[in-house]
Amino acid sequence: MMDKYTVTLRGEPFTLYRDQIEFDSPNYFTSIFLGDFAESQTRSVELSRSPNLFRIIVNYLSGYTILPLTATVIPTDMTFDMARTNLLRDAEFFGLRGLVALLHAPGASSNSPQTVQSLAVAYQSLALGHQVVQFGDLLRGNLPPGVLCDNRGVGSLQSEKWYPIPIKASGMIVVDWPNPDLVVKTTLTDPLAHETLSATLTRRGLQVPMTTYHLDGTLFQAMLCTILPSAHVTVDGIDAVGMLGETYSRASASASSNVDGGKDSNIDGLTRALQRIWKAEDTKQSFVYAAEEIVFTIRPSAKSPPIEVCILAARFVSRANAASRLL
Questions:
Q1: Helix (H) / strand (E) containing 5
Q2: Which pLDDT does position 234 carry in this prediction?
Q3: Using an 8 Å Cβ cutoff, are 138 and 116 in contact?
Q4: What's the confidence (pLDDT) of residue 71?
């Protein structure tokens, strides 16, 4: 007899078999039904996720092709774009790395083993837990089972070893404060939640290093963080991996001396982009970005304070670029 498990979503029951929950593992289902947690003794769970989207996930766990999404599977209260975005959020909630990779692949119509393998390599090489948490869910305390939030940061235990969990967000503000020694102080904040950011993180058990600064006449609370040397970073579409620190001094110096940053100059593309950002912001002391998408961790640190915020990947745009999209 095949092992059966029941997942009830908003009162609607779904039956999953062991081969389905192990299809894209490890994941939420293997943790709660087959893992080492106390909840693993159960064969049923109730959640508040969308049952309509879960039907798509059940097909995925059965090995079926689910993309492109068709009109017959789209929930009636969602557009195609909304359904794909919400399906991605559910895939991240359930820790389905293969489905996350599939939904991130532009135009993908079937599961790509190469894409899934690449994602697995990223998790392993960066020593990350397999689930992904949205920063908004972290602030609300809405974490998937198995994800822990304590004095070590945000992570999970696998074979009794702690792994930090990737935290994703969009629309956050990143400010870099370079100094002449090329040492950069980086801050990260949510402009819609900054006023209570420190208190909220403290309630979650996270003693994150914080600072404050003035921007646009507002006093912002922000997390102190580090952009890792290996972080994948772009600025207005330009590759900036490992180059921000050394480029800041050139950009600020050329901007201050009114060096021409036109297309025909000898200034490289990244310096030109940073030069425009330096000129556009009032501070003339920092580089301010809007993060279209950012992935970071809150993890243990050997220094004081005992946890740190580390940026793993980010797609930055200037605030002027972001503002132009309002037109």
A1: strand 4-9
A2: 94
A3: no
A4: 77
First vs last Cα of the chain: how many Å apart?
61
pTM value > 0.85: no
The confidence score (pLDDT) of residue 113 equals 46
**CA–CA gap between residue 167 and residue 137 (Å, rounded):** 10
Distance from C-alpha of 4 to C-alpha of 134, rounded to nearest angstrom: 30
Same-domain pairing of 175 and 293: yes
Which residues lie across from 157 on neighbouring strands? 162
Q: Is residue 180 part of a domain?
A: yes
How many domains does the chain contain in total? 2
Identify the segments of the chain with pLDDT beneath 70: 1-2, 36-41, 105-120, 180-183, 254-267, 282-284
Cα–Cα distance for residue pair 97/83, rounded to 1 Å: 18
* DSSP letters for 81-117: HHHHHHHHHHHHHTT-HHHHHHHHSTT--S--HHHHH
pLDDT at res. 72? 79
> Do 100 and 91 touch, CB atoms closer than 8 A?
yes
